[in-house]
Amino acid sequence: MTIDIRRIRDRLPQEIADLESEARREGHRHVARLIDEWSTGAVRFDRDGERLLGAYANEVLAGVGGMTVETAMSGTLRMRRFYVRPAMRERGIGRMLAMALLDHACCSVVTVHAGNDGAGRFWESLGFQPYGRDGHTHVLALQHHSDDPAASNLRRCVTPRSP
User: Fold this and answer.
1) Are 76 and 68 in contact (CB under 8 A)?
2) How many Å apart are CA 111 and CA 26, to the nearest integer?
3) Where are the alpha helices (DSSP H) in the chain?
4) What is the distance between the alpha carbons of residues 125 and 112, in angstroms, rounded to a whole number?
5) What SS3 class is residue 88?
6) What would the DSSP string read from start to end of 122-141?
7) How many other CB atoms are found less than 10 A from the CB of residue 7?
């Protein structure tokens, strides 16, 4: 199976409705919120440092994940709206989405609100630490490349430490 990570920019993919339906059946509303916020223009993942990615498995949308500016903490980004189809889990798709976003992070701290214990374990496997404040459950301090002269301005992408 070929996994392709693509940036979603101008419009949500048509297959997002299928993801939303699957998420709703599992009791999750965050994909519906993604669709609602996108349609109203409230959140389009288009500010500096933000992005929304789709993971495609053999050209079928298998999952989504995004990163937005965290308004509760200055200079911080927040992972949000992560969802992988149940049939596509345990194949590394969530990890690929998260790592692709972290590879482009333009800050030194990334937060997340894990919706359940399984999600918490997933984020911890990527190096996030339990946090439990300001509406976040986990936080990740990114390490800058010390040999990169552009790293000091935080506009340069940084790479997280290996889990």
Assistant:
1) no
2) 24
3) 16-25, 30-40, 93-102, 117-125
4) 13
5) helix
6) HHHHTT-EE--STT-SEEEE
7) 11
- The residue type found at 110 is V
Burial pattern 31-43, b for ≥16 Cβ within 10 A else e, equals bebbbebbeeeeb
Q: Whose structure tokens read 């359940």? A: 116
pLDDT block averages, 10 residues each, the chain of length 163: 94 96 96 97 93 96 96 88 95 95 88 90 94 86 56 35 35
pTM of the model: 0.84
Report the chain's C-alpha Rg in angstroms. 15
Q: How many Cβ atoms sit within 10 Å of the Cβ of residue 111?
A: 23
In which order are the strands placed within the sheet that holds 3-8?
3-8, 51-57, 60-69, 76-84, 109-112, 138-141, 129-130
**Rounded distance between C-alpha atoms, residue 160 and residue 123, angstroms:** 12
